[in-house]
Structures are given as C-alpha cells and as structure tokens.
Amino acid sequence: MSKEIIAVSFGTSDAEARETCILPMEEAYARAFPNIPVRRAFTSRFIRAKLAREGIVIDSPEEAIAKVRAAGREPVIASTHLIPGLEYERLRDIAGDLPVSAPLLSDDADLARVASILADIRDRSGRALVLMGHGTDHAADDTYRRLRACLPENIFLACVEGEYTLDTVMLRLEALSDRRLLLMPLMLVAGDHARNDMSGPEPDSWTSRLTAAGFDPMPRLVGLGAIPAVQRMYIDKLSAVL
Ligand code: CO
After folding, report:
1. Nearest to 114 by CA among 83, 77, 79
2. Is 138 an annotated catalytic residue?
C-alpha cells in the first residue's frame, strides 16, 4: 500500500510561525521522501479551535489518519515533538500500531547532535546563547537536564515550565564577562512563548529580566523547525520508521 506522511506538531496560532517553522519542516520531509505525500496535523485542540474561528481548518491526528486511510493509503506519523512527554505519549496512543517517528531528543546521540548544532549557532553569533525550552511537569522534563549536561560552554538552557526556570541559570550567567547574549527558543516554532515570554515588552519577559540584570540580550525569533540541521535529524528519525 502506498504511504502518506502526517507531520504532527503541537501547533501554533501564530501565522508567521506556521510559515517560517512548520511549513519548512513539512517541505523538508517532502524533499527527503519525494514519492510520499505529506499532510499536516496539530495535536492542540485549543489551537485548532482558535484557528477554526479564523477560518483555518487543521486536522487533529485522528482526523488526518482517517483521511489518509479513506484515500487508501497507509499513514506514517512524523512526530516533530522535542521530548517524549505528554503530547508525544498521547500521539503514540492515537497512532496505535501505526509507525511514529521518535522525538528530536530521544537518545544520547540526539543530545550530542543538538548540542553541536547549538554550538554552531553560538559561534556564528559571537554571543553566549540562552535557550528557552518549554519544560513540562511530565517525567520527560529530565530530558532538559540531560541536554544541559552536554551543552558546551556559553550555552545555557532554561524553560518556561517545569523545573529548569531562568533563575536556575542566572548565577552562571552572572559569571560571564561578556554580557552580550543571543536568546532563542528551543522549540519547534518561534510562536507565542518566543514572542511574549522570551522577547516581549512585559517586565517579566526574559529579554526584560536579562536587560534589567545588566545583560545585552538579542532575541532571535527562529524555531528549530526552520533550522536545516534540525530538519535533517527529524528526517533521519522518520527514515528509521518508514
Ligand atoms: Co506552552
């Protein structure tokens, strides 16, 4: 039976982030597997409902699976999740026996590969790199600890939720002699968290807090889905289940 790839993410209500972070990831799958159609699904019910009110209809994974089967094809799920957390577990449950690719940060080799991609970004910018991860109450929050443990010098990772808040890296940032920082989301998309929690004008955004602490933070609104080296990792993970 011919296959069809369902590229699944949490989703974002931010049109620019869909254009610059999710679409390029889907296009990368399409280039890597030119004979297999690619379609989109978002797991977030909240985001799908919000988009539906704007007239933009995006399938849930269940809907996408049903459509692919109705077309007589075999669904293959491309997970664009970062960690094997709640969203990924739910997706595995929905997929049942269908193949699902692994999250970006699954094994130690993944952590090393991401660390080296981040080191390139740090080197090209000439600034210390501060990453905003999402974080979670799920046990998979430990993935962020494991990634932190293999990050090279002058790369710092903190999260919006979970245990690894900005405060947990502040002391180490304080020890930097060069106060210039590059801020980036460690998320598939540079969406709401990147725009508001990371770089927004509110006093509790990371940019505001770091500026108040005497740093010179430069936010960069680029999600991982827009970075070719990360796209290659996701493609390798999909290859493994295809
Ligand atoms: Co969130």
Report:
1. 83
2. no
